[in-house]
Design goal:
The protein is α/β, with parallel strands linked by helices. The protein has two domains: 5-87, Orthogonal Bundle (Arc Repressor Mutant, subunit A), CATH 1.10.10; 96-306, D-Maltodextrin-Binding Protein, domain 2. The protein contains twelve helices and eleven strands. Strands 3, 4, 5, 6, 9, 10 and 11 form a seven-stranded mixed β-sheet that branches. A two-stranded antiparallel sheet has the order 1-2. A two-stranded parallel sheet has the order 7-8. α1 (11-22) packs across α2 and α1 (11-22) crosses α3.
Length: 306
């Protein structure tokens, strides 16, 4: 017998289960916090649904299941157990047993500052997780999640669509980076110096107007001499090491560069520019167990980055 489930009140299955267990209409009603009349009404609906009496009168108000009702009992118990599983809290996963592939969208900045520690942590606790990285400097819409296979994006984004979920990891500061030999970088950069020195402008975002400090500079009535505009932050130390150019970059990235190149950096004295580093994901993955585990790992690693 095939039944259209959309036309059935699934509470009838709970009622039938109670009747089979109690074999008494009143007691089954008490089990479900229902009156005897409400329970009797449910039994009437069950009889119409299954086209069987299901129960006959027994001794002292008890009811006796029919042969057909007894055949339903094991299947009913299994069905209710499976339905209950749907509403149970997801089982706590063991990282070492995870077998999954994750695609993360990273900017140049997060590739350098966050990803090395992130991949080290994942390799330590969940060696069965495979990570693919795609370059993502900005997020226009949900397309990268819907059609480009990105599971999680991490970076500094000028705009994050309202249709996505974002969580802030930490705040970044803007600083001026350049060669150790550059006399301009012997003290914090003031407004006069900033407007006269030639610069390498790293286009972290999609549009020039969204460059680091650009809106602040414009609001102050200043203008920088950006003689080189480049889309990749990781090429900056190679350019700056052999020129007198300076570049506005992010402090944690600057700290990475000065460890490996003959560079130095200074704060910008005439304004303070801060930028939130966020991880962004699609709402469809909000409650996915593996996805949530990855987000928790990213958040914990981000807290260790000074």
């Amino acid at each position: 017998m095939k039944i259209d489930l959309s036309k059935i009140n699934l509470n009838l299955l709970i009622a039938l289960d109670a009747l089979l267990k109690e074999k008494h209409v009143t007691n089954a009603g008490k089990r479900l916090n229902l009156t005897q009349s409400a329970m009797s009404n449910l039994l009437k609906q069950l009889r119409e649904l299954f086209k069987d009496k299901l129960f006959v009168r027994g001794h002292a108000s008890s009811i006796i299941p029919t042969s057909f009702a007894l055949t339903l009992e094991p299947r009913l118990t299994e069905a209710i157990e499976k339905i209950n599983l749907i509403f149970q809290e997801p089982e706590i996963i063991k990282p070492e047993s995870i077998k999954a592939s994750i695609t993360i969208g990273l900017s140049d900045y997060t590739e350098c500052v966050l990803f090395p520690k992130l991949i080290k942590k994942i390799m330590q606790v969940a060696p069965g997780v495979n990570i693919t990285v795609k370059h993502v400097n900005y997020i226009k819409n949900k397309h990268i999640f819907d059609h480009e296979g990105i599971d999680l994006a991490i970076g500094i984004y000028a705009k994050i669509p309202d249709t996505l979920i974002a969580q802030q990891l930490f705040i970044e500061n803007a600083v001026c980076l350049g060669s150790k030999k550059n006399p301009i970088l012997r003290k914090p950069i003031n407004a006069k110096t900033f407007t006269h020195v030639k610069q390498l402008a790293i286009q972290f975002f999609e549009y020039k107007e969204e460059l680091l400090t650009e809106s602040v500079i414009t609001n102050l009535g200043l203008k920088r001499q950006a003689i080189v505009t480049h889309p990749h932050a990781l090429s900056a130390p190679y350019i700056l090491s052999d020129t007198d150019l300076i570049s506005v970059t992010l402090e944690r990235l600057a700290k990475q560069f000065v460890k490996r190149f003959p560079l130095t950096y200074q704060p910008i004295s005439f304004f303070s520019a801060t930028y939130p580093v966020c991880m962004v994901w699609h709402p469809k993955d909000k409650n996915d167990v593996i996805h949530k585990w990855v987000r928790d790992i990213v958040f914990s690693v981000a807290k260790t980055i000074e």
